[in-house]
Amino acid sequence: MKLNKIEFALMNNPLRAFIQRHYEAPLLARLGGSVEGLKALEIGCGRGVGAEILIQRFKVGELVAFDLDPAMIDRARVRLASYIPGKVSVMVGDACAIDATDASFDAVFDFGIIHHIPDWQKAVGEVRRVLKPGGRFFFEEVTRKALSRSAYRKFLVHPEENRFSPVEFISELEKQEIKVDGNYVERWFGDFFIGVGKRL
Ligand SMILES: C[S@@+](CC[C@H](N)C(=O)[O-])C[C@H]1O[C@@H](n2cnc3c(N)ncnc32)[C@H](O)[C@@H]1O
């Protein structure tokens, strides 16, 4: 589901970019290792800050990035203009029906989008489908515990049902043959978790 106006503003501000660049990206790199020169996909890319990090810091060889919201994609196209066409493709798309062939990516990145998807297990299945065997899934996610807090309930909009804890999310990944093997960390009193799994 698309963000409401408040979360749209929260995601399109310098603090969000700072956290993504200086906290989430280094942690993901530490947990997941190098993806230099590889073909990567970013689901729910928002305004393209994550994609910029994947190009500049992770040095991916080729990147496809999509988001459900055309307004986000307009912003991402402006931000990533110097890499398009060529290294990067940016498009509107749905993580529950990824427009890519099976086993076509070495790495998939999720910077906090799957908790926005009512049928998130379907999105995990799509991630698995497009990953090559041995490909890695880098994820940063928001838990049921966070979404139940009054500030989240009052100001933001998320699916009411089918939310997840870190253990539930990781169990689903492992059920769908993306092995995490304890390679994740919880942060902010269990509100967020960050990890990397490998497709069998
Ligand atoms: C919390 S924002 C995160 C944006 C960006 N990844 C970041 O970290 O700043 C969640 C994003 O997921 C997108 N989104 C929600 N459901 C989606 C879906 N089914 N497929 C693709 N993108 C989706 C929203 O439009 C939004 O841009």
Task: Provide structural commentary.
By secondary structure, this protein is an alpha/beta fold. The mean pLDDT is 94. The longest helix has 19 residues. Strands 1, 2, 3, 4, 5, 6, 7 and 8 form an eight-stranded mixed β-sheet that branches. The protein starts with a helix and ends with a strand. It has eight helices and eight strands, in the order H-H-E-H-E-H-E-E-H-E-H-H-H-E-E-E. It has a single domain, classed as Rossmann fold, CATH 3.40.50. It binds S-adenosylmethionine. S-adenosylmethionine binds next to helix 2 and helix 3.
As for the number of domains, it is 1
- Helical content class: 25-40%
Radius of gyration: 15 Å
As for the CATH topology, it is Rossmann fold
The geometry reads as globular
N-to-C order of helices and strands = HHEHEHEEHEHHHEEE
How many separate helices? 8
How would a crystallographer describe the biggest sheet?
Answer: 8 strands, mixed
- Tell me the CATH architecture: 3-Layer(aba) Sandwich
Please indicate the percent range of residues in DSSP E strands (runs of 2 or more). 15-25%
